[in-house]
Amino acid sequence: MKILIVDDKDENLLLLNTLLKGIGHDVEQAENGKKALEKLKKNTFEMIISDILMPVMDGYELCQACKKDPELKNIVFVFYTATYTEKNDEIYAMQLGADKFLIKPMEPKAFLSAITELAKKVEQHKIIVKKPEIADAEAIKMHRDRLLNKLSKKIEELQSEIERRKKAEEQVQKDLMEKEILLRELYHRTKNNMQVICSMLRLKARFTKNQELTGILTEIENKISCMALVQQKLYDSNNLSYINLIEYIESLVQLIKESYASSLEGIVISVNGDVIKVLLDTAIPCGLIINELMTNTIKHAFPDTSKGNLDISLNLNETRELVLRVSDNGIGLRDDLNTVKSRGLGIQTILDLVEYQLDGVVNFENRDGLCCTIILKQELYEPRI
């Protein structure tokens, strides 16, 4: 049997094509009622299987056009729909002259059984092709009513979906707000706990007569202050993942200056650079590195004089890598630069932080003093928030 299937969805056409050709039918297809009529004028078909909701011309209009055409009115017409599924939709379809009304989705076996039953009746001339039971004016009115009914239901569904999404969005916003509050509280408490530790170290250093121990306690306090400052910057920031690195460095330098106030009277410190946002995982190691470099400069760069310059710069190079440079005009490194890794714990800490934690490159060179250049990837870590 030659069958024309009409549907605007490719996946539906493919499925029907496969099923019907699988049991020996000759099948052609069209994507809407208008295209179907064009094929019906050119070829002879014994059955039409049509969806209802389609652009240009829907299934109801196609059925009505076929039943009005003397050459097409005797073709068996089957509706196969997933949208028009109410009883009134079926009644209207049958009144237009349809021979069968099937609702998607159907099991392939059940669908083929229904089509095969109709095909046998056609072959045995036992089917009486139905004629329209309603006049054109009535058909138009009922068609309009069906469309309005579907439109009304679709509007209700959309309104319901909008309301559902609105509630979901409100819940997401609420969850995000709660998460932000918790994170800010976490940063705040972490900073406070670190400050308590710093206070304890400062108190211990104040009452310790051993100058070497006092220096060690001060260094530990500065390291913890570096980390506490990051927590404070995140707490104050609008973004709980990123902080402005140059702004953080400026604040860090101020903290270190306060800690070593007596040793910095003749040292001029300058900080300049681009506004670059980095994650917590990058900011903390950078802070510890700057702390080590500044401490080394204060202690060792100007042994014969209390005057000098310390410059800190931050920018992006042509490959979008972070370039952090700390330089002074002191005595520089008197040892061979190739043996720099064998120097003290402070230098070793810098090397470990750059090479192993930040996956970067560090270079020391004598350039009218010591110059340390550090190159880091800007996006080494993924945001956690």
What does this molecule look like?
- This protein has 385 residues and is α/β, with parallel strands linked by helices.
- It has 3 domains: 2-134, Response regulator (Rossmann fold, 3-Layer(aba) Sandwich), CATH 3.40.50; 151-237; 239-385, Heat Shock Protein 90 (2-Layer Sandwich).
- The protein has helices spanning 10-22, 33-42, 59-68, 87-96, 108-123, 136-206, 211-236, 245-259, 280-301, 345-357; strands at 2-6, 26-30, 47-50, 76-81, 100-103, 242-244, 266-273, 277-279, 307-316, 321-328, 361-366, 370-377.
- Strand 4, helix 4 (87-96) and strand 5 (100-103) form a beta-alpha-beta unit.
- The longest helix is centred in the middle third of the chain and has 71 residues, at 136-206.
Brief overview, please?
With 385 residues, the protein is an alpha/beta fold. It folds into three domains: 133 residues, Response regulator (Rossmann fold), CATH 3.40.50; 87 residues; 147 residues, Histidine kinase-like ATPase, C-terminal domain (Heat Shock Protein 90, 2-Layer Sandwich). Helices cover 54% and strands 18% of the residues.
Kindly list the characteristics that best describe this protein.
385 residues, alpha/beta, Rossmann fold, Heat Shock Protein 90, rod-shaped
| Poorly predicted parts | none
Approximately how much beta-strand content do the residues carry? Answer: 15-25%
Name of the CATH class of the largest domain: Alpha Beta
User: How does the major sheet shape up?
Assistant: 5 strands, parallel
Helix percent reads 40-55%
CATH architecture of the largest domain: 2-Layer Sandwich
In the CATH scheme, what's the topology name of the largest domain?
Answer: Heat Shock Protein 90
Shape: rod-shaped
Number of domains: 3
CATH-assigned homologous superfamily of the largest domain: Histidine kinase-like ATPase, C-terminal domain
What's the mean pLDDT score? 83
Number of helices: 10
- The largest sheet has its strands arranged as 2-1-3-4-5
Q: What is the CA-CA span between the terminal residues?
A: 62 Å
Structural class, by secondary structure, is alpha/beta
* N-to-C order of helices and strands: EHEHEHEHEHHHEHEEHEEHEE
The radius of gyration over CA amounts to 40 Å
* Extended strand count: 12
